């Protein structure tokens, strides 16, 4: 099975690497990183680059795509080559997926009209601008479109997706192989229970990265 | 605060990118990827490269190092430049940490003698070969040495570490920013409850990556 993860300047590394690690761990799954040109693409921090090995000009033909988010999503909304690639890739995928603000790129590619979809908790409502029905859930499935919430939600989505692509036992084996038995030291990851002041600070840190990208 | 993550051929991408994403999200924390030479370093799948921007020849001087694991750990155990860098970096760190089989590199650098430490569940006992006291916990702290269990445990470790480096509120704000409110579709990440057959298969998949690296 062929999976592609498109990269663009200012993506969030974990949005891409979380699902990559889950999917690529399964036998028979090949993951390709695609970008405007093959070569390194910088993330939103500007300090890490992941290397793409294929270009948006090549015919996609993937079974699954995973579009990462990141503060670079805002300029990427007017990146025609990226959006055209997403639309072309979607024409042949079995699953078209996104993590965090990657769902805005699905929206800009015209794929979310009338679809239930999610994104990072700070920006959920804005998905309506693309004709989507915003939903506050960790993983949202609507037909073949699967969207995950913020950053770390891509790992949970990828395990669900892998079970659909292969079978439940394969997904559970990968979960064990990567020892994904999460035990965060705090219960602080949900916006539903976060103090308002902390939520505002978290969003201001995200926006700070936008300025740096 | 300065954090370094050393890369070597065959590392596991999520071991590096999980902690990176947590730590770099906090204001005032700069993360540098270091390798034998600046440039792309391939992971254990061989399909993804992360770009290092500093070399093992430069004087370390970091407050924190995070050593990733991966199937490339085995050849890396005899990589003198990497091990010397770890030992030199450790001389000035406030925290010396590892994820997954990265703890074997701390061991080979002579840093685990008499220390409690952990690694991926499939290899915990083997830490004794480096004079360590193997412990089956998700995050193990012994003095300034902090070791995390397999792959995904690096995210949990990094949140704990960030609270120590800064304060609890900063760690909680980052956890919210990356929406780390984990909800895996299965309860299959712990070796303690896994069926033996699945555990054997999971390890064989890990070893298959060793062969590919």
From TrEMBL, chains A, B:
Listed InterPro entries: Class_I_gatase-like, DJ-1/PfpI, INH-QAR
Signal peptide region: none
GO BP, one annotated term: regulation of DNA-templated transcription
Pfam families linked: DJ-1_PfpI (PF01965)
SUPFAM superfamilies, alphabetized: Class I glutamine amidotransferase-like
CDD domains in alphabetical order: GATase1_PfpI_2
Ranges for domain DJ-1/PfpI: 1-163
Protein name from the UniProt record: DJ-1/PfpI family protein
Lineage: Bacteria, Bacillati, Actinomycetota, Actinomycetes, Streptosporangiales
């Amino acid at each position: 099975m062929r999976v592609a993860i498109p990269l663009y300047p200012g993506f969030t590394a974990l949005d891409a690497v979380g699902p990559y690690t889950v999917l690529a761990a399964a036998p028979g799954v090949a993951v390709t990183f695609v970008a405007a040109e093959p070569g390194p693409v910088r993330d939103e921090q500007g300090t890490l680059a992941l290397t793409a090995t294929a270009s948006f000009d090549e015919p996609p033909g993937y079974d699954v795509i995973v579009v990462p988010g990141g503060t670079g999503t805002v300029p990427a909304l007017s990146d025609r080559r990226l959006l055209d690639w997403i639309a072309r890739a979607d024409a042949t995928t079995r699953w078209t997926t996104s993590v965090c603000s990657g769902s805005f790129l699905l929206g800009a590619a015209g794929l979310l009209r009338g679809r239930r979809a999610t994104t990072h908790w700070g920006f959920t409502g804005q998905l309506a601008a693309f004709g989507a029905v915003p939903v506050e859930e960790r993983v949202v499935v609507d037909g073949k479109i699967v969207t995950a919430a913020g950053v770390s939600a891509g790992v949970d989505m990828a395990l669900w997706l892998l079970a659909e692509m292969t079978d439940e036992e394969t997904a559970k084996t990968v979960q064990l192989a990567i020892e994904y038995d999460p035990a965060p030291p705090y219960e602080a990851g949900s916006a539903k229970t976060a103090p308002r002041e902390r939520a505002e600070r978290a969003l201001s840190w995200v926006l700070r990265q936008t300025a740096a990208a």
